């Protein structure tokens, strides 16, 4: 008995964990297997090759780690840096805050570059810090590509340009948790040294797999990095890669088969089409927000996120009430405002395996809740604006052409 049963499908529009497609659920519905049999290494070998495609890398080395995004952060940091190392990190929202907290607790010397929540990373300050650092005391630049708390996307190409302009050797570590497989992400082209994501975001898998991809320079750095690491030590993985058995400890068999199915779906749609779909759904969401007369928490268009939109509510409304009511009344799950923006924003996640009509259902639900909590919205206004946009911009489904 499901004590929170609601009829129909839950409209899951939090920015992760996201909907799991049927094909993936079915692929995971299987018994455990002996991971030392030849089958699992054979499956893993191909997964490791294929997973590089979602980071757009050919030179990176991926690690499929039984963990979450938080563990993937720790893997990136502890394998490449030593305690006391100076790093530059940007505080722009709850997830960059949590990563900075981890960096400080791991005893790195963190130069925190803070911006208002709703703004992107201040890359002018990065340029001045990198420009002044003639003796290369900065060992890494850490940045969250897409700040899920505020719906802000940072410009990674600019970070690379700054490092190149000053010929600075700092490692470039990127949290791609709410961006990889949804936003344009080019590990090799942007010279990213460690890129990471979590299975429950745009890959549309259950939570439980952290995917970390290391450049040759990051692997080289791991040979001298002195941070203590055991569970996350890349070297343990590399030893087993060489042996062709791949696993230093027990992988989730079900998640491996799920990843296979998730990648197959992404490749069938085409990664670039997947990215375009995210752009379309995000734009539709933004036109709906505008039609409701509400503001995007993201302060400039250049930072608009195509995976999550944080919507500011008028001060007489508590945004948490919107989230509570959406779930209780309409079986719609929206994202809460977190920390500094708690009560002030609610979030619509539009990432992963989701389509136009699902989004319109969500937008219809948001309108009803807005009206319920006393906001004078015209029912249908956001849906009309979004569907007018989608009707003009939605292509044929790639595999059905
Ligand atoms: N980074 C970003 C951008 C996130 O959105 C999240 C979670 O939502 C995390 C890191 C942390 O990931 P996890 O909750 O899987 O540990």
From TrEMBL:
InterPro entries cross-referenced by the UniProt entry: Aminotrans_V_dom (IPR000192), Aminotrans_V_PyrdxlP_BS (IPR020578), PyrdxlP-dep_Trfase (IPR015424), PyrdxlP-dep_Trfase_major (IPR015421), PyrdxlP-dep_Trfase_small (IPR015422), SP_NH2Trfase/AEP_transaminase (IPR024169)
Positions of post-translational N6-(pyridoxal phosphate)lysine modification: 201
Keywords: Aminotransferase, Pyridoxal phosphate, Transferase
Chain residues that bind substrate: 347
GO molecular function, one term: alanine-glyoxylate transaminase activity
Cofactor requirements of the protein: pyridoxal 5'-phosphate
Assigned EC number: 2.6.1.44
Source superkingdom: Eukaryota
Xref: Pfam families: Aminotran_5
Protein name per Swiss-Prot or TrEMBL: alanine--glyoxylate transaminase
Organism: Penstemon smallii
């Amino acid at each position: 008995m499901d004590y929170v049963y609601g009829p129909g499908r839950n409209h899951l529009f939090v920015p992760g964990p996201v909907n799991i497609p049927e094909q993936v659920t079915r692929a995971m519905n299987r018994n455990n297997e002996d991971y030392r049999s030849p089958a699992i290494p054979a499956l893993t070998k191909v997964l490791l090759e294929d997973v590089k495609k979602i980071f757009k890398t050919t030179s990176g080395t991926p690690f499929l780690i039984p963990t979450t995004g938080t563990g993937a952060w720790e893997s990136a940091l502890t394998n490449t840096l030593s305690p006391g190392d100076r790093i530059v990190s940007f505080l722009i929202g709850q997830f960059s805050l949590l990563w900075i907290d981890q960096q400080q607790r791991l005893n790195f010397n963190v130069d925190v570059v803070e911006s208002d929540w709703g703004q992107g990373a201040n890359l002018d300050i990065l340029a001045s810090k990198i420009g002044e650092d003639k003796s290369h005391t900065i060992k890494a630049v850490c940045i969250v590509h897409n700040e899920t708390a505020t719906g802000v996307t940072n410009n990674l190409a600019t970070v690379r340009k700054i490092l190149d302009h000053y010929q600075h050797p700092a490692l470039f570590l990127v949290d791609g948790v709410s961006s990889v497989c949804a936003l344009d992400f080019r590990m090799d082209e942007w010279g990213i040294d460690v890129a990471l994501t979590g299975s429950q975001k745009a890959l549309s898998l259950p939570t439980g797999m952290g995917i970390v991809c290391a450049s040759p320079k990051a692997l080289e750095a791991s040979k001298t990095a002195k941070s203590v690491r055991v569970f996350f030590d890349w070297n343990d993985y590399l030893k087993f890669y060489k042996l062709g058995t791949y696993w230093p400890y027990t992988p989730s068999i079900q998640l491996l088969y799920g990843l296979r199915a998730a990648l197959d779906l992404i490749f069938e749609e085409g990664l670039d089409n997947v990215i375009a779909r995210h752009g379309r759904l995000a734009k539709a969401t933004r036109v709906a927000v505008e039609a409701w007369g509400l503001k995007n928490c993201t302060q400039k268009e250049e930072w608009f996120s195509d995976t999550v939109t944080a919507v500011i509510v008028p001060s007489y409304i508590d945004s948490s009430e919107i989230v509570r009511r959406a779930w209780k009344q309409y079986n719609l799950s929206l994202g809460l405002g977190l920390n500094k923006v708690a009560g002030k924003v609610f979030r619509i996640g539009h990432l992963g395996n989701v389509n136009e009509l699902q989004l319109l259902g969500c937008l219809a639900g948001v309108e009803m809740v807005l009206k319920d909590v006393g906001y004078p919205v015209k029912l249908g206004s956001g849906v009309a604006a979004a569907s007018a946009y989608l009707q003009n911009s939605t292509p044929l489904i790639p595999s059905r052409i």
